[in-house]
Specification:
By secondary structure, this protein is mainly α. It has 6 helices and 2 strands. Helix 2 packs antiparallel against helix 3, helix 2 packs across helix 4 and helix 3 packs antiparallel against helix 4. Keywords: Signal.
Length: 306
Amino acid sequence: MFLPRSLSSRLSLLALTALAACATPVKQVPPTPPPAVVPTVMPTPPRNSAPDMVPPDKDEAGKFITPNRDSQGDQALWHVRMGLNVAALGCPETNGQTRILYNQMLTVHGASLKRANDTLEVSYQQRYGSSAIRMREVLNTLVYNFFALPPAQKAFCQKAVATMTIINGLTPDALAAYAPKALDELEQPFRDFWAEYEDYLRRLEEWRKRFGATVKLVGPVGGDDLNDHEPPAPTAPAPMGQVPATPMQRPSDMILPDAPASAPAPAAPAPSVPATPSAPPPVVPTQPQVQAPKLPLQPVPAPPES
């Protein structure tokens, strides 16, 4: 028996519809969600210091090596005087207290300080001969720069006030015995800072290992969005214990000749030549160029009234 063509077509259509209804529906794969944003803060240098400073090396005992290392006797006393001279000239937050105490120290212990300087002059002459002045100037510059490290100045100025208060109450004999301890006390703020800086470098290294390659920095810096930016790579190391790009200058201790008021006009640029390794800058003496230089101890003048 044959069915009419129209009826057969209708039955076929119904069968196909039934089969389609029984088929397993295709599952829609949801889109991959974006990676979760992990809040993180990149470690920053302590006390607003530069991000690329290099801490001093350490000795076998784990102590920072400083220009005052192993100083005893007259050398320790003279280094104390240099450190306190930095405080007298560079601690405005003490409202002149460091200057007053420093000048008082020169009055009370001027003879002891002069004797210490004379002893060191003889020692340098015997050891270095004609290079004595230059060698002593090199060390003096290192000592002044060490005590002038900006991030440690606040704590150093407070320590200087306490140290000079003790010194001004000592007899000359007691001063010589106290000098090494005083030098250690004056160094403590700088050791504390370098310990903080080493901890910052350690935390920064851990942060870079964990987040440095994929971190998403959130928040403007200078008005720019830092998303998709990687943290900057470390720059070349700076000289040990120095702040790069802002070299410290040795503060005048008011006992040395003044520098010329103005430098001569620079000469015309020389024609370009193949680059050669640069020699170290010449040492500019800050003491009189004589066979037996003397360093008369003069008080630090008060700042002019505004």
